[in-house]
Each structure stands twice: as C-alpha cells, then as structure tokens.
Amino acid sequence: MKNVLVIGCAGQIGSELVLELRRRYGVNNVIGTDIAPEKIKGILAEGPTEALDVRDRATLTELVKKYKIDTIYNLAALLSAVAEAKPQLAWEIGLMGHYGVLETAREQKCAVFFPSSIGSFGLTTPHKNTPQDTIQRPNTMYGVTKVSAELLGDYYNKKFGVDSRGVRFPGIISNVTLPGGGTTDYAVEIYYKAVETGKFVCPLKAGTFLDMMYMPDAIKAAIEIMEADPAKLKHHNGFNISSMSFDPEIIKNAIQKRIPEFEMVYDVEPIKQAIADSWPDRMDDSCAREEWGWKPSWDLDSMTDDMINTIRKRMNK
Ligand code: AKB
Known about the structure:
Layout: E1 4-7, H1 14-25, E2 30-34, E3 49-51, H2 57-66, E4 71-74, H3 80-85, H4 87-108, E5 111-117, E6 128-130, H5 141-160, E7 164-169, E8 171-173, H6 186-196, E9 199-202, E10 210-214, H7 215-227, E11 239-240, E12 244-246, H8 248-258, E13 263-266, H9 270-277, E14 282-283, H10 286-292, H11 300-315
Parallel strand pairs: 1-2, 1-4, 2-3, 4-5, 5-7, 6-14, 7-11, 8-10, 9-13
Antiparallel strand pairs: 10-12
Helix pairs in contact: 1-7, 2-4, 4-5, 6-8, 6-11, 8-11
Bound molecules: 2-amino-3-ketobutyric acid (AKB).
C-alpha cells in the first residue's frame, strides 16, 4: 500500500483506521473520505480529506486518479438494525456502492478491503465454532449485502484479478467514535453508561453470545490482511476473525469487578434480539491464523480496563 483511500472515514472504524494508516504510510498518503464531510474533524482533518458518497462512482474514480490511489478501504454501510429500518438504502450503499468500488478498482488497478461481518451468517449457520466455509443464509438486509459483497469480491478476484480482500468483523468495541444502529452497539454503550450513570438497560437477553473485538485488534486485522503475502492466501474475502465471545451477563460481571455498584436491567428490543439470534456465538478463525498470521492481542479483561480508564479520563470521573 502506498496511496490509500478510505471511504467512510468519519465512522466508528474509519476514524481510527485512517490515523493508524497515516502513522504507517504517511499523513499525505492516506485520503479520508466521507458522505458527511462536516464530520471529518480534529486530528482526522490534519491529512487530505474529501467528500464522497460511495454511490458516486465518477467522483470515486476522479479521486483515485487525483491521488494515484492503489488501495481502497470501503467502510460505507448502514449497520444491521438501521438497515432493517431502511433496507433499500442499505442495499444501495452496502452492495451497489461496493459494486462501484470494485468496478473502479478493476479499471484503475487498485486493491480493495471490504469489511464483512458476523452478520453475513444466518439461522441455519452452525453457531458454535462457525467454520470459515459454511452455510450463509442471512435473513437481514445487512447480511444479504455482506454475503453478496464477499462473493462479488471473490468473483472480481478470479475473473479480473482485482486484489479484493476482507474479514468478517465481530461487534467492535471502541472509545473514539460511537457506532450507530448496530446490534452489537450495546457492548460499547454499556461502558459509557457504567462510567456516566452506573446503570444500563440491555437490549439483548442474557445468554445471547456474540463475537466481539476491541478496536485496536480490528484495525490490526484490516491492515495485516492487506499486507499479507498473496501466495499464502487460499481465501481472499470474508476471513473469520475472532478474539472474544460473551453474553450480556459476562460483560456486566467484568464491569462490576471494576465498578461494584454498576447495575444492569433488561428491556429486550425484539428486532435486535432476532438479529443477534441469527448470528454465530463464536467463529472459528483458524484459516485467518494459518493463512496470514491473525492473532488478537486483547481479551475481555484487558479491554474492560482500558475502556473504563479511557472513558473515566475523558469524562473527568
Ligand atoms: C452490527 O451490529 O450491525 C455490526 C456488526 C456486527 O457487523 N456491529
């Protein structure tokens, strides 16, 4: 990667990925773009930035030529719960937008990173130790766009030689930019509420196990997969990556070890619960480990210490 363009740079992952890419490849070699350029602020705005709607292929191609881009990270998407409320828009952005990215990549000879998700699986997928290659019959629009984009990436790789790669992200927990409209967002909100008010209303039932990951590991995965030796890759798009799996009770207990007065009650949101019930409890990520050396660095305890300390400092609590 020499010149990188990130689509969706003001979002939860983009806002941290751009900074790490700039640390590694140089500030001026990483172009942050977003559909809402007014959200590109602070340290993110210290390097090159542009307004870009992923559906606007003409502007994307213009920017790729202008900055001599060789790698595109396409992070534009509506998260799972919002996508159920706006399925047509989710399709336009999540799948048609990505089709445009792959077409631009084919013409301009760029590599492409695509963030798939645990959402690409469905009720008929084996939920425990979900294999790399298995049944993917998602019943959400988010999942339909994710599995379609994985397949499209594989197709463009085989048919046109586009170097399209990607991972299936678990729920991502971070303390810089809040996620918006995901099913796993509760695992971020719980930390903010624990520090702010000491109380949290959980939208998912006890016993709902999901894969989760701390942001530094997610960023590491997004960069390492693109830097991996192509000769060693048997898969390209949609690598399972896993680091921890927990249910609401387990994360509550981890917080109570540090904040004993923390209280949690349940008020289950049926749409989110149905989505979570269709997703794996824990993925088997042995292909990512074998093919490109994936290894997470954070677990629930180290992440909980870091989340609470960081949020406390920021809130002066
Ligand atoms: C969501 O909950 O929609 C996302 C995801 C797991 O892809 N965080």
